[in-house]
Amino acid sequence: MITSFGKIADPIADKLLTGAAFVVLSMLGELWWWVTIVILVREWGITIMRFVVIRYGVMAASKGGKTKTVLQTAALIALLLPLAPFVGAWWLWFAWVLTALALIVTVVTGIDYVIKAVQLRNAAVNKSTGTEDK
Question: Is residue 13 part of a domain?
């Protein structure tokens, strides 16, 4: 079931869980801080932006946003599983590739959400002033 509350609460829960894992990995020296900071700034920035534009409408998670969450989760699992000693150094490379993909999709979808928020706001403002396209 999709609800307005779920559209807001679910992304926040995802951000808390993944954000904590990224911070812990950075604290342990397993992940560069700049990667964690870029991801956290995007995550919390989009969350704050959603609250700002909520008066114009609710922004549901996009397919790109869901892909971002899957990639971040896969990257975290790959970084957290101590498989490299058992399967070889390729596992660490695999984890880094997943992390790079997650970082790229995180930034790209962040930009996409900003564009969608501006469009949502403009559409609502135009509708309220009667200047929408006919």
Answer: yes
